[in-house]
Write a structure and sequence with these properties.
- This protein is mainly α.
- The chain contains eleven helices and no strands.
- The C terminus is likely disordered.
């Protein structure tokens, strides 16, 4: 066959950087990622998914912006300002964010990532973020999920919306959306602790489970210790002797066929496990990404999992 892209190195790198930061790797490792990403910022302030690609997108720009903003430092300020301007120029009149160009259909996952990035920057106008939340509220389906665009897994856009909602006060639009997202994920969890790609699939899927677990571990009280244990075991079972995690692909858009980016299974599995570890250890998020998380209060005394 003939691949329609040769790599997604920029996107994989910025995504891995955000996850490694939550996994608490040494700061010097994150510095190396920044040094790779900063020179690749395009003239319009955004990032493309790979070196040599000139078309920037809201996905790479948002994820890179999150990494740079959370890392801080004077050297990143100019890049952060330019990235924020890029995202603000992309926002549609309906409040949502498209992937590539203003005027294209807004997407839930991309809008959630843009919200997270703009919040992390600390310089985005509040009304812009509020408009994006309003669009997400209108786009949320009856059961609490969202239409997928770039992935097959039904849990994928829900996970990113939950990410954007972390730290939002009760009673806000974001908190209401998050509550419905949690109900959606809980309603599709299998008895063995896994989640399927499609809600009606009989078997679980590693990536779908990682997305759901990473989302629920960021929401206080959404899992009992038994549920947490079982779901963690599903993810751990996918780890190979090389330390990486292996499972079926779920990448889809924009073309109607599934393709595989193998390292994504490791990245998202690590994300889920890092959050589960922090939940169990009580460390929460020390980097400012969100509130401390905890196991459901009714189950806290029975939690005996190894936080490592």
């Amino acid at each position: 066959g003939v691949p329609f892209i040769t790599n997604e190195d920029v996107w994989v790198t910025c995504l891995a950087g955000v996850v490694l930061a939550e996994a608490r790797v040494p700061a010097v490792e994150l510095l190396r990622l920044e040094q790779y990403l900063l020179p690749l910022q395009q003239p319009d302030g955004g990032w493309a998914y790979a070196e040599g690609v000139s078309q920037t997108d809201a996905d790479d720009t948002s994820v890179t912006l999150v990494l740079l903003a959370r890392r801080g430092g004077g050297a990143n300020r100019a890049a952060i300002r330019r990235a924020v301007a890029n995202l603000l120029a992309l926002q549609n009149p309906d409040g949502g964010f498209p992937t590539f160009v203003r005027g294209a259909a807004s997407d839930a996952e991309i809008t959630a990532k843009a919200i997270l990035a703009l919040q992390a920057s600390g310089i985005a106008p509040p009304d812009v973020i509020a408009a994006a939340w309003n669009w997400l509220g209108q786009a949320q389906q009856f059961g609490g999920g969202f239409r997928g665009e770039w992935k097959l897994c039904c849990t994928y856009p829900v996970f990113h919306v939950i990410n954007a909602s972390i730290g939002q006060r009760p009673g806000t639009t974001a908190a209401t959306i998050r509550r419905r997202c949690v109900a959606f994920l809980r309603g599709r969890r299998r008895a063995d602790g896994s989640w399927p790609i499609h809600p009606d699939d009989a078997e679980g899927h590693v990536l779908s489970t990682a997305y759901a677990l990473a989302g629920l571990t960021a929401c206080p009280g959404s899992l009992t210790s038994r549920e947490l244990y079982d779901s963690v075991q599903v993810v751990l079972a996918a780890q190979g002797e090389d330390g990486g995690f292996h499972g079926g692909p779920d990448s889809l858009g924009p073309r109607p066929f599934v393709y595989d980016v193998p390292i994504l299974t490791t990245i998202y599995s690590l994300w889920a496990l890092a959050r589960a570890r922090d939940l169990l250890s009580g460390r929460g998020d020390e980097a400012g990404q969100g509130p401390r998380v905890r196991v459901a209060a009714r189950d806290r005394k029975s939690t005996r999992l190894n936080s490592s």
